[in-house]
């Protein structure tokens, strides 16, 4: 079977709104370490990791063996009506690492479900369906999570079970806060929050759900300390803070284990997903016991926290901690961000090289303006693939190159990927200005 055959079959049976990367889509058939091979035998260095999900990389013996041991028992599923040792052990580790006192953990299959569960708990705890969300955010594809997604390209329905009020994101390039000096943006964001509460809500808001770094939004974020400033106001009203750590968790930012820790504040709930399963479906919510216990009826997740996925999760988390991958993310991420800023940061078409650890973005604009250049971003995206590097795209305007390599990335691989990135950006930038 050729890739063309598979593409035709894909288009015949799957909906057109399922995005496929690249003008000539690829089928990934094998992987090892930080590299994957397609059906044509071409090998790529992977800087996107299945959208930041293959956090430890591919074909990792410790994870494979943990899953095989569980499969050998013959038990793939029991449901949470029975005790699941792997689930309890993983919950104990996550509760301890969360930084939240007296924490409880509920497992789901995906980040969408995790955010849905957090909303269920917050709205029950506060007896309110009013929610604060942030512009340019992304939280999932269910009705409620689309309703608090502040990015029109990913919000596929206007139907919403929640009443949502929107805060400015603190993005550095665009929006009202971008016009202010950096030192004034937190005060302006607090003023914005107070005005939103006074004018767009009836006061008894359930929660603010926010990403420390906006993932789909293009890896943009407000100033460190923003969450703490917001929480001072939220606490005046009893409003909960929920940190969406689906992309920022597990040490990816390098400087902290959770994204919220850059802000000097502890959330009431945090949601996690993606990397903890390293490809196995695993996600969840961890939070204060009194909030987690506020669900007034029986609720469970059929497949969330099943024996196989939590066996993988335990192995992933143990590997992450044993090998200090947070420090590795800081080290290899610095190679990438410093190298990109030095090599292409001065180009007129590069508005910003940004990010923390191994969560990096390059935003492209038309030279001399702040006008997004999605076409140039698409060209660089394809050029990276041609050079043997897989990256992602994103941003509100589709003009941001996104990179979230496995946290096991080596320094040599970081330099290899950097060279491909620099060549792709320079060549596409030169073509864009050629007469």
UniProtKB/TrEMBL annotation:
Molecular-function annotations in GO: transaminase activity
Assigned EC number: 2.6.1.44
Pfam family, one: Aminotran_3
UniProt entry tagged with the keyword Transferase: yes
Broad EC category: transferase
Xref: CDD domains: OAT_like (cd00610)
UniProt-listed InterPro entries: Aminotrans_3, PyrdxlP-dep_Trfase, PyrdxlP-dep_Trfase_major, PyrdxlP-dep_Trfase_small
Keyword annotations from UniProtKB, A to Z: Aminotransferase, Pyridoxal phosphate, Transferase
Requisite cofactors: pyridoxal 5'-phosphate
Entry annotated with the keyword tRNA processing: no
Signal peptide: none
Subunit and partners: Homotetramer.
Family label: Belongs to the class-III pyridoxal-phosphate-dependent aminotransferase family.
Name of the molecule in the record: alanine--glyoxylate transaminase
Species per Swiss-Prot/TrEMBL record: Micromonospora fiedleri
Classification lineage: Bacteria, Bacillati, Actinomycetota, Actinomycetes, Micromonosporales
């Amino acid at each position: 079977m050729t890739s063309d055959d598979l593409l035709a079959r894909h288009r015949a049976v799957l909906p057109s709104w399922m995005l496929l990367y690249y003008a000539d889509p690829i089928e990934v058939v094998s992987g090892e370490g930080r590299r994957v091979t397609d059906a044509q035998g071409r090998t790529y260095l992977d800087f996107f990791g299945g959208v930041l999900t293959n956090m430890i990389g591919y074909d990792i013996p410790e994870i494979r063996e943990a899953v095989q041991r569980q499969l050998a028992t013959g038990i793939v599923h029991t449901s949470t009506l029975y005790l699941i040792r792997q689930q309890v052990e993983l919950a104990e580790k996550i509760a301890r690492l969360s930084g939240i006192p007296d924490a409880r953990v509920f497992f789901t299959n995906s980040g969408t479900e995790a955010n849905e569960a957090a909303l269920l708990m917050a709205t029950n705890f506060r007896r309110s369906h009013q929610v604060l969300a942030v512009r340019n955010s992304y939280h999932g594809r269910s009705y409620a999570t689309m309703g608090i997604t502040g990015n029109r390209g990913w919000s596929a329905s206007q139907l919403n079970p929640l009443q949502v009020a929107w805060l400015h994101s603190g993005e550095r390039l665009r929006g009202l806060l971008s016009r202010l000096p950096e030192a004034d943006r937190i005060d302006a964001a607090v003023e914005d929050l107070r005005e939103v509460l006074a004018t767009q809500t009836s006061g008894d808001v359930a929660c603010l759900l926010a990403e420390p770094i906006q993932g789909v939004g293009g890896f943009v974020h407000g100033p460190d300390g923003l969450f703490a400033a917001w929480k001072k106001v939220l606490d005046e009203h009893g409003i909960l803070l929920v940190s969406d750590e689906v992309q920022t968790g597990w040490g990816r930012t390098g400087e902290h284990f959770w994204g919220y820790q850059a802000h000097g504040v502890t959330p009431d709930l945090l949601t996690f997903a993606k990397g903890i399963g390293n490809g196995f479906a695993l996600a969840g919510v961890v939070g204060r016991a009194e909030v987690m216990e506020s669900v007034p009826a029986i609720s469970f997740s059929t497949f969330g926290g099943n024996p196989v996925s939590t066996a993988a999760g335990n192995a992933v988390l143990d590997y992450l901690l044993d090998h200090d991958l947070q420090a590795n993310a800081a080290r290899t991420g610095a190679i990438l961000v410093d190298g990109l800023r030095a090599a292409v940061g001065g180009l007129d078409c590069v508005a910003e090289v940004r990010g923390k650890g191994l969560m990096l973005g390059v935003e492209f604009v038309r030279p001399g303006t702040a006008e997004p250049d999605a076409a140039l971003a698409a060209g660089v995206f394809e050029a990276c693939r041609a050079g043997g590097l897989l990256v992602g795209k994103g941003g509100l305007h589709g003009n941001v190159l996104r990179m979230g390599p496995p946290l096991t990335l080596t320094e040599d691989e970081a330099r290899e990927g950097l060279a491909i990135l620099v060549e792709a950006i320079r060549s596409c930038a030169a073509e864009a200005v050629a007469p």
